[in-house]
Amino acid sequence: MVETHYLNIKTHGNTHILNITNDIANLVLSSKITSGIATIFVPGATGGLTTIEYEPGLLKDLPELMEKLIPSDKFYHHNDTWHDGNGHSHLRASLIGPSLTVPFTEKNLTFGTWQQIIFIDFDNRPRSRKLVVQLLGD
Amino acid sequence: MVETHYLNIKTHGNTHILNITNDIANLVLSSKITSGIATIFVPGATGGLTTIEYEPGLLKDLPELMEKLIPSDKFYHHNDTWHDGNGHSHLRASLIGPSLTVPFTEKNLTFGTWQQIIFIDFDNRPRSRKLVVQLLGD
Amino acid sequence: MVETHYLNIKTHGNTHILNITNDIANLVLSSKITSGIATIFVPGATGGLTTIEYEPGLLKDLPELMEKLIPSDKFYHHNDTWHDGNGHSHLRASLIGPSLTVPFTEKNLTFGTWQQIIFIDFDNRPRSRKLVVQLLGD
Fold first, then answer.
1. Most buried pick, A6, A37, C72, C77, via CB within 10 A?
2. Percent above pLDDT 70 for chain A
3. Looking at chain B, which residue has its C-alpha nearest residue C106?
4. pTM (2 decimals)?
5. Coil, strand or helix: which one is A81?
6. Per-residue model confidence as pLDDT tens digits over A96-132
7. Residues ≥6 apart with Cβ < 8 Å to B99
8. Using CB atoms, which residue from A115, A137, A138 is nearest to C43?
9. Which chains have 3+ CB pairs within 8 A of C?
10. CATH number at residue B103
11. Of the candidates A65, A97, A137, which has its C-beta nearest C97's C-beta?
12. Domain extent at residue A89
């Protein structure tokens, strides 16, 4: 069985980190599939998906890490192409990746207690996003 | 339903970035599966998969980022083992990851307009690669 | 068809890299599914999954790279929250990612010869881990 769902979210951009765990858990709960995998996907080249312990400290640490590894104020050739100033956003998104696959069994995502699914919007302006959540299983 | 496909590609190596979006889209179009997920996998330890806006600026920015984070001219213990000089290639591949899963629905990959699937060959020489594309769904 | 399996492992922590390739290959061999995908998932926010050539050189190079990109001795806001000193562990885990999906066909994982699946425990102490291995296919 396959079910396609969408998650509409508004972001502030600028490495805004959103906790989408409950949204995914609720989609699994209300689906007809009991056990399988949830593939979450960002249609767009300036957002990423991963997991983290969603607590105030790490919500500062992760953007600081991104700023250190891929600074927002450096020269990027991308900005020569489009002049939209978000070259760093694209590179951060490619590094973190646009896709996350999470197993579930008996309607429960197989998470750790302190682990949350996050969508990170790396773009340099507020965005409306429509994430894809594809459920596969029995 | 499960379908296994292969994608044969030749690369220049040295962080060569190839746009494989149309290849994947065509495999989905010609398959018997209407909705599901495409898992793309690199069998090999010096290649990676992610998405990017495939435009000339970012095709320079991404290799420059990799060179900054994991320089090709530094010492790596790997080169003590094999003397093949591609320690940086292995580390870049482990960081980006060998696997990408993309949902599709009604025969269409759920992409953003400016987002392409890329295979990056981090090895330090030209390579022939055979990527695996596993389609699952209904 | 869906099968849920678990892999119990003990780690030393501190970027301990474990080769779990044979465990995954054996689960596939003994399952009722012939072709499909194996999704491996870390329930926990301080571990990651990727592939690498599992040889002594890279087993030194990868921890050294992590120490360079995300040093263990720097200040992280996370440590203000919990005082457990593992802010770097969380960031490394978010960067590498908690999930890996590997296709298999005719009971064989579609690996490269020199490529192994690794679980990396980034926590700063020994841990007992229970990885999830979700098999989907025919």
1. A37
2. 100
3. B4
4. 0.98
5. helix
6. 999 999 999 999 999 999 999 999 999 999 999 999 9
7. B39, B40, B41, B42, B49, C100, C101, C102
8. A115
9. A, B
10. 2.60.120.460
11. A97
12. 2-137
